[in-house]
Amino acid sequence: MFERYNKVQKAVLETTLHLIIDRELQATSMSLIAKDSGVSTGNIYHYFSSKEDIINELYKAIVLFNGEFVTKDLYQINSIQEQFWQAWRNVFELGRNYPKAFRFIEQYSFSPYIYEQTKVEAINGGWCGSLEKLYKQAVEEGIFVELKPLMMVHMHYGSIVYLLKLYQQNIHDLTNEDIEKVILACWNAVSKEEGSNS
Q1: What's the CA gap between 23 and 174, in Å, rounded?
Q2: For 13-29, what is each residue's pLDDT tens digit?
Q3: Where in the chain are the domains?
Q4: In this structure, what are the phi and psi dihedrals at residue 21, rounded to the nearest 5 degrees?
Q5: Do 75 and 37 form a contact (C-beta atoms < 8 A)?
Q6: 1-48 under CATH 1.10.10.60, yes or no
Q7: What is the topology classification, in CATH, of domain 52-190?
């Protein structure tokens, strides 16, 4: 997830993610990040100007990773329906395999700690932008109902996020069969004609 960063930056970002999820943001201090990461405070300040700077870099790093993860192999698929299915399968896989990163994005996407510019970059550069284009194409080709594409993406994402939260809290399982049925329900919610599982 943080492979594009150097060793020090990676240690700081990974440690900050774990601390924020385990202890909450307010309890995560620079001194605690330094202690748990094994990186001196001075060295941290060489790369990050403040705790807020670390939080924003962490947010950007996770969003970028999520975008690459959700859209992997997507453009090798020709069918809009198959792209739709694969993208949402990837979202489920992301939530199940990277629970802390998933929770961080969900908890802090609207936090005042995240700069507005960072949020804009995240929406445009993350996977939501790619799916918006896919949904727009589906609307233009008469496959989806006339609704704003990004609104539909967020509508589906909201439902899936809630299911993943319940899964992470061990309230219910998410089998592959469950996931396929959920994606089918999402497709049918915006499709002009009910589709079948691809």
Answers
A1: 27
A2: 999 999 999 988 888 99
A3: 1-48, 52-190
A4: -70, -40
A5: no
A6: yes
A7: Tetracycline Repressor; domain 2 (1.10.357)
Instruction: Return the SS3 of 191.
Output: strand
The residue whose two tokens read 């201090």 is 29
In sequence order, what DSSP letters do the residues of 5-20 get, joined into one string? S-HHHHHHHHHHHHHH
What is the reported pTM?
0.86
Residues in the chain predicted with pLDDT less than 50, given as ranges, are: 198
62: nearest Cα among 26, 25, 114: 114
pLDDT for residue 50 = 93
> Residue 105 CA to chain centroid, in angstroms?
6
Residue 194: per-residue pLDDT: 60
* Per-residue DSSP letter, 195: -
Would you state the structure tokens that stand for residue 143, as one six-digit string?
Answer: 């496959």
To which residue do tokens 């939530």 refer?
95
CB atoms within 10 A of CB 93: 14
Amino acid at 164: L
